Amino acid sequence: DIQMTQSPSTVSASVGDRVTITCRASQSISSWLAWYQQKPGKAPKLLIHKASTLESGVPSRFSGSGSGTEFTLTISSLQPDDSATFYCQQYDSYSYTFGQGTKLEIK
Amino acid sequence: EVQLLDSGGGLVQPGGSLRLSCSASGFTFTNFAMTWVRQAPGEGLEWVSTINGVGGRTYYADSVKGRFTISRDNSKNTLFLQMNSLRAEDTAVYYCVKLWSFSYGHIDSWGQGTLVTVSS
Questions:
Q1: Which residues of chain A make contact with B45, given a CB cutoff of 8 A?
Q2: How far apart are CA B35 and CA B45, in angstroms?
Q3: Burial of A96 per CB tally in 10 Å (0-12, 13-18, 19+)
Q4: A93 pLDDT band (50/70/90 cuts)?
Q5: Does A50 touch chain B (CB under 8 A)?
Q6: Is the pLDDT of residue B92 over 80?
Q7: In this model, does residue A87 exceed pLDDT 80?
Q8: Is A16 helix (H, G, I), strand (E, B) or coil?
Q9: What is residue B103's predicted lDDT score, i.e. its pLDDT?
């Protein structure tokens, strides 16, 4: 199975900061990577698919990049509403493994 | 608007069985693969099982293979997960999710989740 590793596990930043989360795959997954945001007690929400395609309705401050084994999610200017846990997920092959999550805290 | 309504969760003893259901609306159900994803309390997300649009192909995580069965009734726009031989480690919120295409892809819609607790 393909393993997905996110870093950092937790990040604390201030409103207006630029935040970057990294996701690494144990083998190449081309661009078959999605990012999800989950707030406490809620179902996750799709932010980005195919590594860099922004889902409709998602603010443009979110962006994704990468291919192969290394990917990043960037929030260009952090907003108070962005406090959440973020997960990457590969869908190159079954099983559709998720990263362990990155908790984003607002200072 | 896509809607996925999960149901069927509850408290069950170890070794017991439970059947989850997911009622779908707002899209042509048979055209899309469906998946169950679970999340143990305080933990991350875990892919459980996927079924393609017509139900001809199914896939399972090693952790549930041989114990869980995914199925769908396209005439009723409903997805199922039959869970047998349940273990404490199966305790989680189970989400019904819709994939982007007929057989694979990213998750573009999530149900609200249904809690399964395996405990004596």
A1: 36, 38, 44, 87, 89, 98, 101
A2: 13
A3: buried
A4: confident
A5: yes
A6: yes
A7: yes
A8: coil
A9: 86
* Contact criterion met (CB below 8 Å) for A35 and A73: yes
Copy the structure tokens of residue B4: 């996925």
User: Cα(B3)–Cα(A98) distance, rounded to whole angstroms?
Assistant: 23
Listed in sequence order, the residues at least 6 apart from A70 whose beta carbon sits closer than 8 Å to its beta carbon are: A22, A23, A24, A25
| Mean per-residue pLDDT, A86-97 | 91
The pair of structure tokens assigned to A88 is 């990457």
Task: Return the ∠ at Cα B76 (arms to A42 and B91), rounded to 5°.
Answer: 35
A–B CB contacts, 8 A cutoff, strictly below: 52
Query: How far is the C-alpha of A35 from the C-alpha of A44, rounded, in Å?
Result: 10
Q: Which residues of A touch B105 (CB under 8 A)?
A: 49, 91
pLDDT tens figures, B47-67: 999 999 998 899 999 999 999
| Unique residue bearing structure tokens 């069965």 | B69
Supply A36's token pair: 């999800």
Q: What is the pLDDT of residues A14-33, one digit of tens each?
A: 999 999 999 999 999 999 99
H or E element in which residue A64 lies: strand A62-67
Which whole number is the average pLDDT over B4-9?
Answer: 97
